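#lab-general

N.A. 3:47 PM
ok so I finally got the sequence cleaned up, no stray characters, all 796 residues accounted for. can someone with queue access submit it? mine expired

B.Y. 3:52 PM
send it over

N.A. 3:53 PM
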Amino acid sequence: MKPALAVLFFSLLAFGAATPVLRSAEPRTSLNQMMIWTAEAAPNEGSVHAGFRREFEITTVPAASALQIFAYTRYQLFINGRYVGRGPNRFENLRPEFDTWDVSSWLRTGRNLIAVLVIRDLPNGRVRQHAPGFAARLDLGGGQIIETDESWRAFVEPAYAPQAKVWSSFRENIDARKSPGDWTSPEFSDAALPFARRVDVTDAAVWPEIHPRSIAMLRETPVPFVPQTTGAAASADGSYAISEGESLRVDLPQISQAYLVLDLDAEAGARVEVTPNLPDRKNYGPSSFTCRAGRQRWIGGDTFGCNAFTVRVTGGTVRVRAVEIVEVIYPFDRVGTFVSSDPELDKIWALSTRSLQLMSEDAYVDCADRERVEWMDCDPPAFDVTRVSMAGPGPNGERVWGDARLLGALLRRTALTQREDGMVKAHTCSERWDIHAIMEDRACDWVEGLRKYHEATGDDELIRELLPRLERLLDWFLARRQPSGLVRAREWVAWDNPMSYAQCEGAANNAFIYRALADGAALATAVGAKDRSARWAAAARELYAAFNEKLWDDSVGAYGAAWGDAEILPAERLFRKSITLRRADGRLEPTLHANLFALDRGLVPPERRARTVAWTLAHTDQIKQIMAQHFFFKLLYQLDEPRHDQAVLDRIRQGWRGMIESPWQTAWEMTGGNGSRCHIYGIVPGFTLPTFVLGVRRDAPVGAKRIVIQPHLGDLTRAEGIVVTEFGPVAVSWRRGEQDTLAFSFTVPPGTSAEVLLPAGAASRVRLQGKEVPSEARGRWRVLQLPPGRYEGVSE
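B.Y. 4:20 PM
back already:
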C-alpha cells in the first residue's frame, strides 16, 4: 500500500541549534584527568553501553557555552532531553581527539541536564580495541565549570545486547523493557542510579593526551523520504498502526549515510526490526527494538549507506507516530559544477561528486556500505576530487576552498599505525591484520599524499611532525634493496595488475618507491631537513639508474614487469595463484602497469619516452579497472593531442555508463559492476572532467598563487562550470563556433595569476574583451598570462 502523501517528514531532533566549534584551545585542565566510568567494571573485550547524567543550575543562559567531550569509543549527547549530536571522530589509540560544542542554545534558566550515551564498541573497520571511558568539560563562563567526576550518575545500560562482530556499520538489538527508563529526559529521577568512578589514567601508553578535533564537525541533515506500507494503514494524524507481519518502508531520494529515528507508541514486548537497503547486503541483518509500554523514541546508534529503511513489526502492535532519516557526513558544500553538450558526462560528474560526499565521513572511506574504512589509497582520488569541487566550513562563516583537513587527518592516522620496523598499515583505526594490512604501494601513497597535502596547504608543521616516521618508512624500503639496486617487495595490488601480490623486484612497485624517495626529498627540503633531503635524493637517483638498467627491454621498447624471480606466498594465493608472464634476459615480459607507472612516476628518460608511450598505447587492453584508468587519463592529457582528449571522454562514457544507469546512482569499485556499488575508486571523473575538460588546475605549490586554464573538449561543443581551487572558485565557459572558433569566459581569482592556453583557431588569434591581444604560440595552443579578473573572448 502506498499512501497519497508524497513525502513524510517529521522533525524529531531539532537540528541546527547547536553550533559545532571547529577548533578550540587546549583545555585548562586535561580532559584525560576527567575520565570516568561506571562503578561496575567493564569487561576487557566486547561491547558495552553506559549512561551518564549530570544536573546543574544556572541563573542566566550564557551567550556561549563550550562543551568539550570525548568517549572511548562513541557517544550520543543530549541536553535537557534533546538530542545534540554524536562523536567523536575515529582515532588511532595513540592520538584521540575531543569534540567541542557550543551548547548555549540548548540551555535554559534554572535546572539543566546533560545526558550522554557512551558505547565502547567491538572493534571493527573504524574502531580500535580500548578500555571504556568518558570525559567532558562544560564552561558556562564566569568561572562556572562542569567537569566529569564522581558527582555524575553512571550506569551500564542493560537494554543493549552485545554487539555482533561487523566490519562496517554496527547493528543494535535493544530491549527497552530492561532500561531504567528515559534517562535522557529532565523529568527522569536518577536517585536510584549509582555514581561514577574516576578512571586511573596514569598509564600514558593506554590513556594518552586527548587533542582538540582536527577536522570539522560532521553535518547532520534530515533527509526527505517517501513512505510505503505493507499491510499497515496510515491514520489521519499521519501515524501508522503496524501489527505483526506488517511493515513500513521509507525510500530516500538517493543513497545517504544515515540513521533512523522512530517515535513509537507500543504495548510492552512489541518488537520492531529495522533493515537498511544497502548495495552490499551480505552479513547485514536487521537491528531490533523490543518496546516497553507507552511512548518511546529510538535514535539509531550508527549510520548505514542505504537508500531505504524497512520497519517491520515481528511481534505485537506498534504505532509509528513519527519517522526521521538523518544523514551524517563531512560538511562539504559541492560548489563545483559541470554542464556540457553531453548529458551523460554531466550525470557522471554529478554521480562522482555526490559519491565523494557520501564517502566523506569523519574520514575519507573506501565504500559507504561494505567497509567504511579509511584506506591510504582512498586518495587518489578522494582529495583530488575534493580540491576541485568542494568547500568546507571555516571560521566566522567563511569557506575553506578545497578543504584538505580530511587528507591531513588521514596522513596523521596512517603515520600512527607505523610498526617498529618502519612500515605503516594500509588502513587505519582497526585491529585487522591480514594480507591487506601491510601493502607497500599504499605506503608509497602515504608519502605522495604528504607532498600533495603540503603543496595544497603550505602546512610545514604537519610535515615536521611526521618527518621522523617518513624517515623510518623510507629506511624500510632502502633496507630491502637487492644486488640489482631494485627493492624487493610485494607488487602493486590492483585487480588488473598481472603482477599483483607477487613478492619481487617489480617495476610498478619500484616506480612507486622511486616517487616516494623523490617526494621525501622535496618535503625534507621544504622544512629545512637538508641531510635527509640529500640522502633520499641520492637514493632516488640510484633507483632510477637501476630501474633503467635492469628493467628496460630495448628489443620491444618497454619496461619488463620485474627483475629476477617472482613469488606468490601461500597466504596470498587466494587472490593470485601464480605468475604466468614469460621471462627473458633476467626480466619478466613488459606489462601495461609497469610502463604506465614508469611514465607516471618520472622514470623514463627523454630518449626512451616515445617508444615507451607507443608500447603503452598499443597495450591498453590490459586496463581493466578504474585506478589504472585514472593514471592512464593523466598520461593521455600529457600527450596533448586531440585524439587523446577524445579517447578519455570515450573511456569515461563506456566505463561509467553502467553506474549512471544503475538505480544506486553511485560510483563503483569496478567498471564492470563487481565489488562495491558505492566506492571511492569510481569518483575519478569528478577530478578528470573539471581539471582537464573544463581545464582548470593548480600546477605548482599553493604558495606560487598560480593556476592554469587549458580546456580539452574532445567532441563537446559546449562545456561550462565552476572549478574549485585553493584560491577560490573559477567559473569557466567554452562554446565551439563555426570555422574552428571557441568563445570563452572565465575568472581568475583575486591574488592569483593564470596561464591560459586556448586552442588555436584557423586565424591563430585571440580576442579578449572585444580586442585582439598578443598571444604566444605553443604547439596547438595560444598562450596568455593574465592577472585576476573576469574575461570574455574568442579564439579564432
